[in-house]
Amino acid sequence: MNPMPQLTPLLKQLRLSGILDSLELRNRQAIDEKLSYSEFLALLIQDEVARRENKKFALRVRRAGFRSQKTLEGFDFTFNPNINQAQIMDLATCRFIEEKASVLISGPTGTGKSHIAQALGHEAIRRGYNVIFTTQSKLLGQLQAARATQAYDRRLSALARVDLLMIDDFGIRPLQPPQDEDFHDLVSERYERRPTLATSNLDLSEWAEAFPNRLLGAAVIDRLRHGAYQVVLDGETYRAPRPSPQSPKAASVKREK
After folding, report:
1. 103 contact partners, CB below 8 Å, separation of at least 6
2. CA 10 and chain centroid, separation
3. Taking the chain, what is the end-to-end CA distance rounded to the nearest angstrom?
4. Three-state SS for 237?
5. Rounded alpha-carbon distances, angstroms, from residue 119 to 91, 93, 150
6. Number of helices and strands (H, E) in the chain?
């Protein structure tokens, strides 16, 4: 007798309909390998747990808002040997999240700041943390829009609670009032509670210059730098232009991206 017709509505009622995906396969396995009832049940439960974890992971990735699927596995450390790979891999353990320590990544355009940031975000998600990846412009635009609709406090609170907030391209545009105040509010809410990761083309000593109010900027950067891990990237750009096939120099190009 095929139990599927009877099981299907019951599993759906219990919100275990995912078991149906592997039930037939596991049933054949149990028969072939002469598994006990408890072993058969354990396999089905393991499948269901794995499905739910994969679903949660996919949902956290979508909510994070990554620009692309950048991972550490896809990062070429050999291209710029000056990059401290040991430091990056240590950050990939996500110990800094439990320490509530910020991560500040600086370096010239094209040296891999955004890739490394998103890769660390992926590692955090794999460990069950909620992550938001955004740019300075997008973040401040959202806060400004929230202010206009009387939802500023709610939006600020949501950003303050996320396990890891990642702000790409900090300082690429100077902040204008009240953007500097919004940024200050957000950093202050997260300070010593949850970590913030920021990337910038500016040298770390120049970050405060992005604020029109230098006192406000100094206060923000002081909070970000306190106990933070600082990653300085340098070397050749990963965004070298692709040479023309007719170019006599094409054969000597070190890397095409």
Report:
1. 91, 96, 120, 195, 196, 197, 198, 228, 229, 231
2. 38
3. 59
4. coil
5. 10, 12, 34
6. 10, 5
Which residue is associated with the tokens 């938001």? 132
- Strand positions, DSSP E, the chain: 103-106, 131-135, 164-168, 196-200, 229-232
Place of tokens 């994070």: 64
Report how far residue 202's alpha carbon sits from residue 81's, in angstroms, rounded to the nearest whole number: 21
Please tell me the distance from the alpha carbon of residue 23 to that of residue 11, in angstroms, as a whole number: 11
Per-residue model confidence as pLDDT tens digits over 160-214 = 999 999 999 999 999 999 999 999 999 999 999 999 999 999 999 999 999 999 9
The predicted-structure confidence for 59-95, as pLDDT tens digits, reads as follows 999 999 998 888 999 999 998 888 999 999 999 999 9
Q: For residues 166 and 132, give the distance between their C-alpha atoms in angstroms, rounded to a whole number.
A: 6
Model confidence over 10-51: pLDDT tens digits? 888 888 888 888 888 988 999 999 999 999 999 999 999 989
Nearest CA to 17 among 6, 9, 27?
A: 9
